[in-house]
Write a structure and sequence with these properties.
57% helix; elongated
Length: 118
């Protein structure tokens, strides 16, 4: 076989293997999971007033200026533990939710926040 034929066989093999891996890879979906659905309801009831309906920090500013824009990359980079701590303990202009939300409800809100689009 010539050098070109060997390269062609190699290229075809790479394409076949790559396509098989792509088919086997889990597909990302825009469909929300159960926690995100539950979290969206809790967020709408307790959080959207300040953070806005889409989490962009454009709510009514009930407790003071500058509620966090939860769609910003800096928020997305924060670890879950830090965001859960913020939900539980609050901030200077944000109330603590540890007495109002269960651990599961807080995690559902976090799942919803993680799913917010920029």
């Amino acid at each position: 076989m010539s050098k070109i034929s060997a390269q062609l066989v190699f290229a075809v093999t790479v394409i076949i293997v790559s396509s098989q891996l792509a088919l086997a890879a889990p597909k990302e979906t825009d469909q929300p999971n159960i926690d995100q659905i539950k979290g969206r309801k809790i967020f709408a009831k307790h959080c959207a007033g300040c953070h806005g309906p889409e989490g962009k920090g454009d709510g009514y500013l009930l407790l003071g200026p500058d509620p966090a824009n939860l769609t910003r990359p800096t928020t997305k980079k924060n670890p879950d533990a830090l965001l859960l701590q913020t939900i539980h303990e609050g901030k200077p202009n944000m109330p603590s939710w540890k007495g109002r939300l269960s651990e599961d409800e807080s995690r559902a809100v976090l799942a919803y926040i993680r799913a917010l689009k920029k």
